Hints:
Blueprint: H1 6-29, H2 37-65, H3 72-101, H4 104-119, H5 124-133, H6 140-166, H7 175-187
Amino acid sequence: MKINNPRVLNTALLISLISIASSILTTMVFKPTDKSTLSMIVSIVIFAISIAVLFQGMSNYRNTELEGYMPFSRGLGYAVLVGIVVGIVSAIFTYILYKFINPGLITEMTNLQYAEMEKRGLSQEDIEKAQSMMGWAKSPGFIAIMALFGSVMIYFVVGLICAAILKRWPRPYTNDTDVVIEKTTEEL
């Protein structure tokens, strides 16, 4: 399966647009540090829509390109390729968001982590040690790379499930196969 397959790219770009639209929506309406129930519900609904689009894309790919049959490995490969494209688009968007659009989000998340550590009763020394160890992980580049890897891993797991549901093998014995077997038997 090639990455330039239009069906794979169409599905991947559609899911990417859904992901970016949801990120913009949740960033404008909710703060990334917001732990409200509505924010969680919106994220779950958008993730469910992305899974439905992936499932429908894999189903269409099986029924049109593969003539109704799809081995497990082809389905998983399809999902991973979609995950790579979605991850690249998400990583670019994440980098732009944290670097140019709203660089203060990283500071907000750091302050939230600091408050959580204080709530747990950690000493000031332990908090400073933890903050210094995680300083490198708070750059827009690192967050973007983690978005890429996270996307690929999520679509790998979702792809395992979708490929298991959608896999379909041709029947091993058909009239065409019987004819081929008879010809080879007669030739012997």
